[in-house]
Amino acid sequence: MLPEIILFVAFLFTVWSYVTKKAQRTPPLPPGPRKYPIIGNLLKVPSDNHWVVYDRLAKECNSDIIHLSVFGNSVIVLNSFAAATEVLDRQSSISSSRPLGTMIGEIMGWKYIFSLQPYGQRWRDSRRMFWQEFHPEHGRAHHRPIQLRCSRDLIRRLYESPIDFQNHVRHAIGAGIISVLYGLDIQEEDPNITMVDDALKHINVGLIGTCMVDLFPFLRHIPRWVPGAGFRAIGENAARDLNLLIDVPYSQTRKLLAEGRGESSFIHRTLSRGPIPDGGMEERILKEAATTTYIGANETSKLPMTLLFAMMAQNPDVQTKAQQELDQYLDHRRLPEFGDEIHLPYTYAVLLELLRLEPTAPLGLPRSLVSDGEYKSYHLPSGSIVFYNIWAILHDETTFPEPEKFSPSRFLKDGVIDTQLKDRVMATFGFGRRVCPGRYFALDNLWLNLASILSVYTMSKAVDESGQQIEIDLEYTADLNRHVLPFRCSITPRSEKAENLIHGCRL
């Protein structure tokens, strides 16, 4: 008996020594709020304005990286440009995957949207197909004529019914990307634009960590009639709306192509590169790539375009300065065109400041670490969900003094755009291998629309029936993907010359 006891004690000592030495070798986790048994930091996870709360926690911890745990799930938040660059760029081999939550991936069916897919061959195939269309040289040759046409249509619509400016922005963005992708002509209240709104209304419900089924995946097996299983119905509705968005416009394009039309489109150009059998995996990837592009372009453009109207009404000095630059260069003879931006640095700075002030996705899309990593002296465990706090990066007072102030001049250095600050703002499009491949298309679209609107319209605060100005108190959706709630402002032609340019936009 004694030898067995000795062997058992020796075994325990060996295990204890191994665990102790391993703990000594492993650097500590990043700092964070106090964790409680089992639930971890569940009580510290905010219900809204996550980016602001995480930025505050980082400052309280005197660290640009924080760690939280929820029911054993490791969460890391990167709150500085340096942290995001180190982890997502320099360690991209371990930080380029996505955490695919049970709700959004399995129940809602969004696992087929390639921007949400884990890093792997299917994702690489989708991105390669996307990049063939949207790399700058190819994309601008095919896309800019469509963007120009849609921008001119937006200018005309603003003249005819300025009160509906938010709907006009929505229509212009939707019409442009649908024409590029599918070669379809978009009509008033087009169902193809409505379909993307229907699909996107579900996405914030399914974002990782917002549903109990993500924390306890076994819940996906409970019947629909069980109390608390309402997520099943939500998921089925979301899957239906997403499948409509994937299939319907693609089918319309294939019908046009069969009739000898719709040839100026992403779908047609991709099909022309080689045979893609109907119903096969390549066709599915093509359809999903088009849908991902539609969703991404729609979401990245609406917030800054809508914010333009409010910021110009609230900051008339900025509006006047931009318009003086436009008038001096264009001499009231034409509307802005592609290629003018290099001659209009202040106007371009207005765009950069809109992107900086209120990023559309303040925490980006989450990443997942596929193996252990390190940042500074901290251990980043494999399997961690990683958020990069774009809002905190773009409101860093050391880089952007008075970050809550709308000040485009901060981007100018000796009369030209400060490329270093511009690169910081590009953080809104992501980092590393998952940086948004459609960023060039988005920047082109935003700049042309912004410059065109400023060249012919003055935006100011609306007035009520008694002639009193109505203050603009901006409110946003409480989602991780933000939108501006409706507000009122006045949009009027700047002059008779401006009206003539507007009338020249009639189709």
The averaged pLDDT comes out at: 87
Based on CA atoms alone, the radius of gyration comes out at 25 Å
Task: Tell me, briefly, the overall form.
Answer: globular
Q: How many strands?
A: 10
Instruction: Return the string of H and E elements.
Output: HHEEHHHHHHHHHHHHHHEEEEHEEHHEEH
Largest sheet geometry:
4 strands, mixed
Helix percentage = 40-55%
**What would you call the structural class?**
alpha+beta
| Spatial strand order of the main sheet | 1-2-6-3
Oligomeric category: single chain
Sequence stretches where pLDDT stays below 50 over 5 or more residues: 1-24
Terminal Cα span:
97 Å
**Structure annotation, total helices:** 20
Signal peptide: 1-17
Keywords: Heme, Iron, Metal-binding, Monooxygenase, Oxidoreductase, Signal
Protein name: Cytochrome P450
GO molecular function: heme binding; iron ion binding; monooxygenase activity; oxidoreductase activity, acting on paired donors, with incorporation or reduction of molecular oxygen
Keywords:
507 residues; 10 strands; disordered N terminus; alpha+beta; two-stranded antiparallel ribbon
